[in-house]
Amino acid sequence: MRAFASPRPILNRAGWVAVVSAITFRLCDWNLSTGRLLAAAVAVGAAAAIVDLFLFRSIARRARAMRRQVENLLRPAADELAPSPVTDEVSALAASLETATPQVRRVVESLQHERSRLEAILGTMIEGVVAVDPLLRITFLNRAFAELMAAATPVPSGTPLVHVVRDHAFLDMFAQVFATGQPLRERLALTSGGSFEVQVAPLSGDPNRGALAMLHDITELERLDRVRKDFVANVSHELRTPLAAVCGYAETLLEGGLEDPANNRRFLEIILGKARQLNNIVSDLLALSSLEGGKSPIPQPVSLRESIESALRTVEPVARTRGVRLACASFEDLTVLAHELRLEQVFVNLLDNAVKFNRPQGEVRVVVTRDPVRAVVRVEDTGLGIPSRELPRIFERFYRVDKARSRATGGTGLGLAIVKHAIEQMGGSVAVESTLGHGSVFTVCLPPVENNISANKC
Q1: Average pLDDT over the chain, rounded to an integer
Q2: Res. 453: pLDDT tops 60
Q3: Among 91, 216, 435, 441, which is disulfide-ready with 197 (CB 3.0 to 4.6 Å)?
Q4: Could you tell me the pLDDT band of residue 40, with boundaries at 50, 70 and 90?
Q5: Residue pLDDT, tens place only, 354-405
Q6: Does the pLDDT value for residue 15 go beyond 60?
């Protein structure tokens, strides 16, 4: 009987399979007895089992090699495996994996690089950034967000957002984004403090992948906006009062007051006084605007004695009229780094306030000392003092402790604001201490450049 052709070789064991097939067909040709045929069948089965074992080990060895190859795709520093010869389908698959490995590895490395760069950018942003999954579990947050929420860092990935943020309005924004799939933007005042422009958007346009929120702190912008509105309102009020008086008395004169010799001169004096008040307001506004937004002049060495003496001479007529005594303790003349005209204006404003808000027969005293790093000028008065609750706002523009008395004395409400900005522009500082009913002390500190020893009295 003619033997059949051997099967198609697979897995590099063609010889073994051919041998087993030939033995099987030859046994059939011999026409053996049943017992011998059974023994032969057992022998053939054992041979087939041995062949299967060899085949299994070969396949397992190649499968392990391919598994290592796949695992090495995620290891940038992994050693390349030596290419294996292509002898069958499994070898061809292994060769294809070996060919694709460098390309896949480059893609993985590029993705890892982009991820690291993105995390570095988000981590250094001043805006708070947080990303969550659809179950509101944190997948990423930067340091700014953790600081805004006073959360201990690092926050583990998978932490529920509610453990970090307690604001229901903020959590509701995520719920709306997941429900609609559309970005949402709102302005929120968070319980952690401050106002924020909050924008929440789904990741890659798919809310099922999660959402990302960005918080921009607008607390300072809102404060500046309130300051601007208050400033406009205060300026309008300060200008409207004298303007109304000027218009009213001018109309009175035009309607017949000019022919009234008993009142026409008094009306003109009132108009002149109000016009001067308007001029003072405009002058102080220009000075304050120059201090806040203009280019600061370069500080020059200025004699502290000359500046204080000039300010005392300027204020002396007003002090004499009000019965207030000016005094200056002897001190060593100091040369400070300052702007001469602005420094004199600072002392004039402080002395003028001390005189105008003093008691009859009161006293204003100037004391100059020097500590290891600063020249210190104290302007002390025996006036009514300032309530402690008013002290934090005393240097604000148009702020007055006693509004009626301040306007009656011709004050604009800008003097102390000018003092503060001028001193800070010269690298110094100004502070106030006061006890209600016992007067006030304004302290100016400036950087000195030398100390001239000449103890003369002001």
Answers
A1: 76
A2: no
A3: 216
A4: low
A5: 888 888 888 999 999 888 788 899 999 988 888 888 888 888 777 766 654 5
A6: no
Q: Which CATH number fits the domain 300-451, given the four candidates 3.30.565.10, 3.30.465.10, 3.30.420.10, 3.10.310.40? A: 3.30.565.10
CA angle 291–338–350, rounded 5-degree value: 70
User: One-letter amino acid identity for 161?
Assistant: L
Give the closest residue to 214 by CA, choosing from 155, 166, 174: 174
**Where are the domains positioned within the chain?**
1-108, 125-217, 222-293, 300-451
Predicted local confidence at residue 1, as pLDDT: 37
- Please tell me the predicted confidence (pLDDT) of residue 184: 92
pLDDT band for position 442 (cuts 50, 70, 90): very high
CATH code of 125-217, in short, is 3.30.450.20
Among 124-128, 280-284, 451-455, whose mean pLDDT is lowest?
451-455
What dotted CATH number matches 222-293?
1.10.287.130
Query: What is the share, in percent, of the chain residues with pLDDT greater than 70?
Result: 67
